[in-house]
Amino acid sequence: MRETKRRTVRDLRRANRAVLLRELYFHGPLSRQELGGATGLSSGTVSNVTAELLADGLLREAGSVDSDGGRPRTLLEVDPGCRRLIGVDVGETRVRVELFDLSLAELARAEYALCDQGHDVERVAAHIRRGVAEVLGGARTDPCALLGVGVGVPGIVAHDPARAQGAVVHAQTIGWDAVPLEALLRAAVALPPEVPFLVGNGARTLGQAELWFGAGRGAGDAVIALLGSGVGACIVTDGVTYGGAGSGAGEWGHTTLHVGGRRCRCGARGCLEAYVGAGALLERWAEAGGAVPEAGQEVALAALLAAAEKGDADALALLAETAEYLGAGIADLINLFNPERIILGGWAGLLLGPHLLPAVREAAGAYALRHPAGRAGIELGRLGVDAVTVGAATLPLADFLDRGGAAA
Known about the structure:
With about 400 residues, this protein is α/β, with parallel strands linked by helices. It has helices at about 10-25, 30-40, 45-55, 120-140, 180-190, 200-215, 275, 280-285, 295-310, 315-335, 345-365, 370-375, 385-400, and strands at about 30, 60-65, 75-80, 85-90, 95-100, 105-115, 145-155, 155-160, 170, 175-180, 195-200, 220-225, 230-235, 240, 340-345, 375-380. The longest helix is centred in the last third of the chain and has 25 residues, at about 315-335. About 45% of the residues are buried.
C-alpha cells in the first residue's frame, strides 16, 4: 500500500505563498481583493501571506485604485529589483551569458565565440565562469542576490537524484557523452554554494520563454521549434512543457525525413536537421555551386537570402525545397500532437521565417491531416535571438516561484 505523505502547516503556507506570488508575477499589479478572487484564497490568508511577502522584500506597493464607496485599494506587485537571475545559452557558435532582474529585463551580457575551438567542455565551462564574473561585475551585483544560474544546452539533459553529479548532458551532435555539466560548473564558477546551477535543453528553455512571455502566451497545447545549426522543439501540453521518460522529448531534428537520405551530424541518415538546419542548408547551397561566405553561418545564411532576392535560381530552388521540408516536418508535429500553435524560433528560424513562412504553411497544410492542420496556427517567435538565454533564466525563476519565494 502506498504511503500518503501528510501535508504540514509549513507545506500549506509555502503553497499559499507560491499561488499568490505566481498570480502577482504573471498578472500583477493586483489588489488584495483581486488576489482573493483570482486564487480562491480567503481574505485573511491573502492578507497574512502578502504581509509576509512584503516583509521579505519580494513585493512592493504599486499605487492604488478606487473602490466602490470605500477606501482606495492598494495595488501590489513583485519587486523586480529584489533578486537577480543569470541565463546562459551554450549555442552552436557562441556562449552567451546575461544577467536579468526578476522581470527578466537585461542588466548585463557577455558573449564568447565557439567557432574555432568547438564545444570542448572545459573551454565552455571557462567561458561561463568568465561570463558570470563579467556580468556580475559590470552590473555591480552581489552574487548573494542571485536566485540561480540557468543554462540552456544542446542535447538531452538527464537528472539522476541518486547521483551526486547533478545534471548530465548527452549531446551527440557536439561530442558530449554523459558530461556532468552541473558538477563541472559548480567546481569552475565562484558563486556562493546556495546559488543553484539549473541545466536544461536549449529548445525547451526557448519554449518556456515563448510560452511565458512571447508568442506562446495563453496557449495550452503548442510546439515551439528552435532552428539554428541544430533543430529542436519544445512540446507544451496543457500549458506545461513535456520532457518524456528521460527528458529526451523534443529532438525533432532527429526524426527521419528521408530514409537513407543525407548524413546528419548525429550519425544517422535522413534526419530533418540534415535538410533544414543552418549548417546543412549551407552545405546544400555549396553543393549547388553557391558562393558560401566563410564569415560564419549567420553571415552565410543572410548571403543565401540576398542571392534569392536577386533572383539566383539555385538559391530560390534551395529555399523552396527547404520550405517544403520544413512544412513536412511541421505536419508531423501537427499529426502527432495536435497543437493549437506552432512557433518558429532560433536565430535561423527568425532569419528564414519572414521569407519562408507562407510556403511553410502551405506545405504543412498539404502534408498534415486537414482537421488538425486547420486548427494549428504557424507563426514566428517574438523574443528574438535571446530567447534561449531568457528561457534559461526562467529555470531558477520557476524554482523561486514554486517555492513561494522561500530560500532553497
